[in-house]
Amino acid sequence: MEKVIIDGGVALEGSISVSGMKNAAVAVLFASVLVGDVCTIENLPDISDVNISLQILESVGVKVERLDATSVRLDSTNACDTMPPQELVKKMRASYYLVGASLGRFGHAAVPYPGGCDFGKRPIDQHLKAFHALGAVATETPELIEATATGKRLKGANILFDCPTVGGTMNAIMAAVLAEGSTIIENAAREPHVIDLVNFLNLCGANISNAGTATIKIKGVEKLHGCIYEISPDMIEAGTYMIAAAATGGCLSVENVIPKHLETVSLKLSEMGAYVEDDEENSRVIVRGTGTLIGKDVQTQPYPGFPTDMQPQIAVLLCMAEGESTLVDTVWKNRFRYVEELKRMGADITVMGENTAKFAGSTTFQPARVRAVDLRAGAAMVIAGLVAKGQTEIDDFFYVERGYDHIIEKLRSVGANIMKIN
Ligand code: EPU
Question: What is the pLDDT of residues 316-342, one digit of tens each?
Fold first, then answer.
C-alpha cells in the first residue's frame, strides 16, 4: 500500500500553479460521447479520476489519444451504448455522466452503479426525475442505472429539482441538448463546473443559456460537432493550497486561478486572520499566514456559498484557531469521518448529530499515523501533517491522487518535506 510521509513544521513559501478542475474535466470527458465527432480537451488535471474516465470512454468505443499529460483527443464517432466494465465505473462517482450522455445520443444507457467518496447516502433520484421528464424510462438498482427513451427522440421539458444537485444538473443538460424542443431546468446547480460543461457543449453547437444561474435554458439541436476546449482551473485545489499557506504560517501565490470562484474561501480566511490578496489581473491569489488565527463559524452551501469540498481542509484551521468554532455541512450529511483521524493528531472536535462539528480551538497538531478516508479528508490530513512538527504518515493516499494533480511535487516545490513510499 502506498503511504505518504510528511516531516512537518515548515512554513510553505513560493508559488503553486493550479491544474484543471477535476469536477469539470470528468463531466466534459463523458459529454464528448454526445458529440459524435473529434474533440480536443486541454488543461486536464493529471489525476486518477481522469485516467479512469478515459478508460471508461474507451470501453464504449471512444477513440482516446493522449496528446500530452494535460490534453487528449477524443473521437466519439463510433461510440455506442454498450455497458462499461463495473470495476472501472465503481472507482468514481462521475462515471454516471455516461447515463446522460449515452441517453442523449443513443436514446439508451445502461451504466453500472457508480462509486465515489462515502458521505453516507448519495441518492440519484433527481437525475432519474430529469430523465423521466425528458421522456425516458429510468431505473436504478444497487448494481445498475438504466434509461431508455420512450419515443424516437427525447422531448424538451420543464425540470424542477428538489435541491440544486451538481450531478443531476449536468446529467439533465447532457440528456437535453439533442432533445426535441426546449428544456428549462429550475433550481439548477450554479457551480463553475456546470458553466464549464455548458461552455464546452455550446462550442460543440449546443444552444444552452443562463448557466451559472438557477434557471438554465436549453434549445434542443439536431447535431453537435467537435471542438477544442480548455478546462477551467480547479477552485478546490486552489483553496486547499490557500489553507495550507495560512495553516503553516507561510506565504503562497496560488496561480492560474479565477479569484471570483474563490471568494467565499478568501473571505473566510481573511475573517480568520490570514492575509489574502485577490489579484484578478494576474489570475492569482496570495495568502499569507499572520501567526494569528481566530475561530469562526462556517456553513457549507451550494455555490456561491462556502464549498463542501473545502470542509475538511478548513476544519484543520478551525482546530488551530483561538476560540470555539462551529462547522455545519448543509450539503452532505456524513462528511466528518476524518474527525477521528484529526483527533489522532490532537484535535479537539465534537461531532453533533449528522452534519455539525464543534471545535474547541488552540490545537497544536502532533504527528501521527493517519488515514485518508476520502479525497478531501486526505487533503486535510496533508495540511495537518504539514503543520505538525515531526513525521506524520498518511495511509491510503490513493484517495488524494484521485483529485490532486502532482500534489507531492507541488508541495515540495514550496518547501514541504513530503514523500511517497510503498
Ligand atoms: N441529492 C439528492 N438527489 C439527487 C442528487 C443529489 O438528494 O438525485 C442531494 C445529495 O444527497 C446532496 C446534495 O443533493 O445532499 C448535493 O449533491 P450533488 O448531486 O450536488 O453532488 P454530486 O453531483 O454527487 C458533486 C461533486 C462533489 C461535491 C458535490 C457538491 C463531482 C464528481 N462531485 O457531487 O465533489 O461534493 O457535487 O458540491 O462533481 C469532491 O470533489 O471531493 C466531491 C465529492
Answer: 999 999 999 999 999 998 899 999 999
Please report which residue ranges of 134-234 form alpha helices under DSSP H. 166-176, 192-203
What phi and psi values does residue 144 have, to the nearest 5 degrees?
A: -145, 145
Q: What single-letter amino acid sits at 16?
A: I
Which pLDDT does position 350 carry in this prediction?
98
* Other Cβ atoms closer than 10 A to 6: 26
pLDDT at 286 over 90: yes
Q: Which residue among 50, 331, 376 has the greatest number of ligand 1 atoms within 8 angstroms of its CB, and so is best to mutate?
A: 331
Question: Where does residue 64 rank: exposed (0-12), middle (13-18), buried (19+ CB within 10 A)?
Answer: middle
Name the residue with cell 471512444. Answer: 62
Residue whose C-alpha is closest to residue 388's, from 347, 339, 340, 336: 347
> What are 95's three cell numbers?
462515471
Return the C-alpha cell found at 52. Answer: 479512469
What DSSP character marks residue 345?
A: T
Neighbours of 370 (CB within 10 A): 26
Q: Which of 137, 139, 163 is nearest to 151 (CA)?
A: 137
Based on DSSP, count helices (H) and strands (E) in the chain, helices before strands. Answer: 14, 23
Active site residue 117: yes
Which conformational region is residue 13 in: left (phi greater than 0), alpha (psi within -120 to 50 degrees), or beta? Answer: beta
Q: What is the pLDDT of residue 354?
A: 87
- The set of protein residues with a Cβ atom below 6 angstroms from ligand 1 is 23, 26, 93-94, 117, 122-127, 163, 165-168, 189, 308-309, 331-332, 375-376, 403
**Model confidence pLDDT, tens digit, residues 214-229:** 999 999 999 999 999 9
Dihedral sign of CA atoms 52, 374, 194, 41 in order:
negative
Cα torsion through 46, 47, 49, 51, rounded to 10: 50
